Structures are given as structure tokens and as C-alpha cells.
Predict the structure.
Amino acid sequence: MSIEKGILYIVPTPIGNRDDFSARSVEVLSQVDLIAAEDTRHSRPLLQHYGITTPLFAYHEHNERQAMGKILSRLEAGESVAVISDAGTPLISDPGFPLVRECHTQGIRVSPLPGPSAAVCALSAAGLPTDRFIFEGFPARTSQARQKQFQLLSKEPRTLVFYESSHRIKACIDDMLGVFGEERLVVIARELTKLHETIISAPLARLVEILEQDANQQRGEFVVLVAGADKPDGDALDADTERLLRILVAEMPLKQAAAIGAKISGEKKNRLYKAALSWVGKEGSQPG
């Protein structure tokens, strides 16, 4: 395999088990002119293990803007550059977005390689719905801000996916208990692909007890997955969809409002039409 020049490669690295490093990732990192690494000290042992001697360049959240200029200059000169993070797929809750956006603006090709991602890895084994989910990255650092964030998501029907550190996992779960309630099902995926990998699925009240009883379950790196909220019973719409539909109904016939509302919200057109029609008798509006 021979790589092309003048391309920014996005290269995933293992989230724990070195054997998850793909052969293609090793080949690309061996052939590019420069590797932009989140933490060169962290990445160097992995690269040495695979005999990769490509020069490393620090590219992280504290020097992102300054380092971006150097990387772009190398790419514009026809060199190839790979971006890696400490673990998993770069840019997923990691630096890199401004660089990739600027590459697109300047017509520089960006080539992503598939590979490990802790969020997707956890989703595959969580036993929660995966057809629709929301990735929220790391929750806020303070309890007050976390609770506010969780409150905004409390009625979200899709599976919620968070990253969390060992320093805040217990406090995070405590705040979830206060907002989502004792019965909400939550999965903690800890140390995925590593020696002490554990996946625990339990209602929040029980999960708090597990963390309190076993300090080992508070160590490591975590993906926290929260079951989506139950949809309202009957024909009731969620608050955002109802607000959207009412705005549309005020401006156009019901059938047209239902059709447009369905495209925007993902709800079924017939369900929206029935909901809007039910307002006619109550509020005196006329169907279109």
C-alpha cells in the first residue's frame, strides 16, 4: 500500500488493547511525513511497538490554533499528515475540528480510517436501543452544571451516551439519580478492551449502591449510557414537536403543516395530522 501526498489522514488508535490497531492504520502512520498526536509521550510507546518511526508533533487543545498553521503549511507543501488521539477515533470528544474544517475550506483532502471508538464499542454491548442515540461527550465538571445538562435531556427518548473519568464517575451517577430517577436504566462500560473491562447494567438506584460497595468500579475510563425516556402515552406529542406543529398550523393548512412537521421532527405525518386535528374542536381553529 502506498499513501497519497497532501492529504490529512484521521487515524484511530486502540482504546486499550494494542491488538486492535488495524494493519492499514499502521501502514498509513508509517508512511506519512508527520503524525500530529494529542500527547506524544502517550503515543510514542504504541508507535514504537509497531516499529513506526514517523516524526511526532504535539497537537492538543492547548496549542490547537497555533499548531494548526504548521500542519496546514506541511499539507499545502504536498506532505501527508496523520492526526491521532490518545485513544480511539480522533475528533470524537478530542481536538481536531478546526483543522479538518480548514482543510475543507482550503480544498485539502481529508481521509478518515475506520477504527476503535469507545462510544460505539459500548453501545454495541450495552443492551440499549442503538437505532437512535445521542453522544454528549463528557458531562459538565460541576454538579450544578451537570444537573442542568441532565435536566435538559431528561425527556430525550434516544439513548444517551457520555464519557466520564474516574474522578467524577460517582458524582455523575449521583446527579443522574437526582434527575432521571431511581428506575432509569443506565449502563456503565468501564475499561473497555482492557484487562479489567466490566459492563454493568442496572437501574440508577442499584447502580449507586454498586459503586458505593465496590471502589474498584470507580476506577478507570468510562462510557455511561442512559436509556431514553419513555415516550408519552397515547397520542401526546413531546413538547418540542408540539411547539413546532403549532407554529406550522398557524401559518398553513393542517395537511401541509403535518407533512412539513413530519420531515423536520421524524414523527409520522398521520400522527401529527391527528394531533393538530384534535385541537380544532378544543380551540376553534379550522382544518385545512
Summary: The mean pLDDT is 92. The first helix runs from residue 23 to 31. The CA atoms of residues 37 and 84 lie 5 Å apart. The two ends are 62 Å apart (CA to CA).
